[in-house]
Amino acid sequence: MPLHLASRRQFITRLGAIVALTHAESPAAEVDEDWIAVLNDTHIGARHPETASIPANLRTTVSWLLSQPKRPAAVIINGDLALRDGKAGDYGHFARLITPLREAGVPLHLTMGNHDDRAVFYDVLKSEKPRAPVVEARHVGIVPLPRANLFLLDSLKQTMISQGVLGGTQRQWLAKELDARADKPALVFAHHNPRLGGNPRNFPGGLEDSEELWRILAARKHVKAYVHGHIHHRSFAAHEGIHILNTPATSYVADKKTSATGWTMLRIADDGAEFTTHTHQPDHAWNGAREALKWRV
User: Fold this and answer.
1) Closest by Cα among 225, 232, 13 to 109
2) Rounded to the nearest 5°, which phi and psi values hold at 177?
3) pLDDT above 70 covers what percent of the chain?
4) CA-based diameter of the chain, in Å?
5) Does residue 16 surpass a pLDDT of 50?
6) Is residue 58 within 8 Å of 250, Cβ to Cβ?
7) 3-state secondary structure 130-149
8) Dihedral-angle region of residue 38 (phi above 0 means left; psi in -120 to 50 means alpha; beta otherwise)
9) Rounded CA separation 245/190 (Å)
């Protein structure tokens, strides 16, 4: 399952049942149940100095989240937590950087990317390894919120292999769980971009079984959006009525002329959602940019 750190009032799906986690919560902070933070591609390295831009960016984002009058109902860090190949020291440093969120009782959910290593991740964060995974050798979960269910997938094919894949077992699990939760809009999160719709259209590092996944998603009208990282850029697209949200990386970008590092705040409404981009560069054109999306019917 993704790493789920929640307050006593927050509930998540784990091992097929709804259970409450018992991390301490901040009594002074209210929770906005319709507000979600999305980070991805943190790429934290063991030897990054604290003043280096990559850990500083994550630290800035964490501080911003904790400074808000209300806390988000979920913080999702959508893959590529580690710098390059998922070393133990990377996850140790990453864990220290997210400790303020955990201590504040903010619900935190992590997924796997192609620069992660599941075995090492679980070795460092031993308490988060499920005793009986709902999908064997995959790191998946569901986060129910009042206006939507969030489905967190594991697209890690192999560490240091750019392409991603879900595989048949995970897709079957997703279809079953989507059918069991058709009463609310479904938002699907995975690290890799789908190789269909939008721009870039056939990014070579994308999800290999995109078409198989989309057959599952498109046939279920309550699926409204697919949210990914991996490309270190920001874009909005759609395929067969399902929104495809490419969210900016927290760590670094390939071209500073076209992209910026940052994070995304998602506010869910009954008929859609508003996505607000925040960048670490205050004067960037993306900073504060909002995209209002309507759900398909």
Assistant:
1) 13
2) -70, -35
3) 88
4) 49
5) no
6) yes
7) CCCCCCCCCCCEEEECCCCE
8) beta
9) 11
Round to whole Å and give the CA distance between 215 and 76.
25
pLDDT grade, residue 28 (50/70/90)?
low
Helices 210-218 and 168-180 meet at what angle, rounded to 10?
10
Determine which of 67-71, 95-99, 130-134, 189-193 has the lowest per-residue pLDDT on average: 130-134
* Cα angle, residue 65 at apex, residues 42 and 181 outer, rounded to 5°: 80
CB contact set of 57 (below 8 Å; sequence gap of 6+): 250, 251, 261, 280
Whether the link from the prior residue into 49 is cis, omega within 30° of 0, is no
How much of the chain is in helix, strand and coil states, percent to nearest 5? 20, 30, 50
pTM, two decimal places? 0.91
Q: Are strands 242-246 and 235-239 parallel, antiparallel or unpaired?
A: antiparallel
Lowest mean pLDDT among 25-34, 52-61, 65-74, 189-198: 25-34
* Beta-bridge mates of residue 276: 265, 290
Distance from C-alpha of 148 to C-alpha of 41, rounded to nearest angstrom = 24
Pick the CATH number of 4-294 from 1.10.645.10, 3.30.479.30, 3.60.21.10, 3.40.50.2000: 3.60.21.10
DSSP 58: H
Long-range contacts of 213-216 (CB under 8 A, 24+ apart): 213/166, 213/171, 213/174, 214/239, 214/240, 214/242, 216/171, 216/174, 216/175, 216/178
Q: What is the pLDDT of residues 266-290, one digit of tens each?
A: 999 999 999 999 999 999 999 999 9
